[in-house]
Amino acid sequence: MTSLLLTGIGSLVTNDPARGDLLGEVRDAALVIEGSKVAWVGFRRDAPAADGSLDLGGRAVIPGFVDSHSHLVFAGDRAEEFAARMTGTPYSAGGIRTTVAATRQATDEALTANVSRLVTEMRRQGTTTVEIKSGYGLTVADEARALEIAGHFTDETTYLGAHVVPAEFAEDPAGYVALVTGPMLEAAAPHAKWVDVFVERGAFDEDQARAILTAGLASGLQARVHANQLGEGPGVQLACSVGAAAADHCTYLSDADIDALASTGVVAGLLPAVEFSTRSPYPDARRLIDAGVTVALATDCNPGSGYSSSMPFCIALAVREMHMTPTEALWSATAGGAASLRRTDIGHLTPGAQADLTVLDAPSHLHLAYRPGVPLVSHTFIAGRPV
Ligand code: NIG
Ligand code: FE
User: Looking at residue 29, which CATH number applies to its domain?
Assistant: First the structure.
C-alpha cells in the first residue's frame, strides 16, 4: 500500500472532538494517506515519512462535503417555473409531475449522463459523498431504473416512489400507495439503502407515509423523510416515531417537533438552497442547534425547488441567512451529513477514516462563507485518490 504525505496545510479541519473545539482544527498541519484511508494527522513538524509528498503551500484542508439529500436522476429542467416563482407564483409539489413526464421519456443513457454531469459539478465543489434519490419515475420499471443508475455513482441510494401521486393515479391515491408498498418496493429494494416519503399537502398524508416507511423498513431499507417543508405537519413526528435517520427540510417546526428531534437524535437536514430558490423563509437553525438537535446541511439538488449542486453555496446561506456560525455550518456540511447517512467512516479526518478530503484555495475554511460564489476548491480526494 502506498502512502502520501500532504504537508504545508495552513489549517486542517479534522472534526475530531478529542482535539477540543467542534472542528478539531490543527494549524500548520500534515496528514498521511495510506491506500484509501487516513493513516496519520498532526503538526507538520511531527509528520512521519511517506512514499510521496505534496506541499499544499498553506491551503486549508477539510473533510469532503457529505451531501445527504439530492434528486439527480431526472430529465429536462424547470427554468420557466423558476422564473414564474421569481415574479410571485408560489412553489407547489405539483411541479414534480412535469419532471416525471420528461424522465419517463428519457433513455437510460440520457439519465446516466445527467447524473454524471451533476456529480462532476458536485465533486468540483468539494463534495465526496452524495445521497441520490429516485422519485421522478413513479412506475415500477422507472423507479427501479432510476435507482440502478444512481447506484453507479453512490452507495447512498434512496427509494422515493412516494414523491407525489402520479397523474394516472389522481383518482386512486390508495392504489398508488399499494403499488409503492408492493411491487414497486420489491423492484426498488435491491438497489436502495434508504426509503423516503414526501409528507406534505399535495403529496402524502401521515397514514400513507407511515404505511410506506413501515413497508420499506420491513424490506430492510432505512428511513428518511421529507418533512415540514411547506408548512407545519406530521412529517417530523413521523420520522421520529419510526426511527428514521433524518427529517429533511424542517422549515416549519412546532416546539413539539423540536423536542422530538432532540430526544430521538433524528438528524434535521436543512436545505437552504430550496428556500433561496423558492423565495421562502429559511428554517430556524439556531432554534434547532440551541435545543441540541444534530443538524446536517445538504443541497437537495433537483430541477424544481432548488437546482444548486453547491455545498459551499449552502454554507454561505446557512451563515448569512440562518445565523449558523461558519464553524457550525462546516460541521453540518461534513460530520452532520455523515450522521444523517449513518456513516462513521466519513465526515471526519482522523486515523482510520476514509481519505475523503477537500483542499481549498484559501488559508481557512472561513473563506467558504466569506467569499460566496467563488470557486475555492483546489483538489478533492475520494478514498485516497485525487478526482
Ligand atoms: O426536496 N420536496 C419534494 N421534493 C423536492 C422537490 C422536487 C421538485 O420540485 O421537483 C424537494 O424540494
Ligand atoms: Fe428533496
Answer: 2.30.40.10
146 & 280 share domain: yes
What is the rounded CA–CA span in Å between residue 124 and residue 363?
18
Same domain, 207 and 331: yes
Q: For residue 107, report the distance from its CA to the centre of ligand 2, in Å.
A: 23
Cell 446536517 belongs to 296
**What pLDDT score does 93 carry?**
85
Q: Which domain holds residue 117?
A: 65-340
Tell whether 292 and 356 lie within a shared domain.
Answer: no
Q: How many structural domains compose the chain? A: 2
Check if 229 has its Cβ closer than 6 Å to any atom of ligand 1: yes
pLDDT digits (tens, 9 = 90+) for 144-190: 999 999 999 999 999 999 999 999 999 999 999 999 999 999 999 99
For the Cβ of 305 lying below 6 angstroms from any atom of ligand 1, the answer is yes
C-beta of 274 in contact with ligand 1 (< 6 A) = yes
Q: Both 325 and 378 in a single domain?
A: no
CA of 349 to the centre of ligand 2 (A): 28
Are the CB atoms for 248 and 300 separated by under 8 Å? yes
CA of 235 to the centre of ligand 1 (A): 15
CB contact at 8 A, 382 and 63: no
Which helix (H) or strand (E) segment holds residue 239: the answer is: helix 235-242
- How far does residue 122's CA lie from ligand 1's centre (Å)? 18
For residues 326-335, average pLDDT = 98
Radius of gyration of the chain (CA): 20
> Do residues 150 and 287 both lie within one domain?
yes
Any atom of ligand 1 within 6 Å of the Cβ of 226: yes
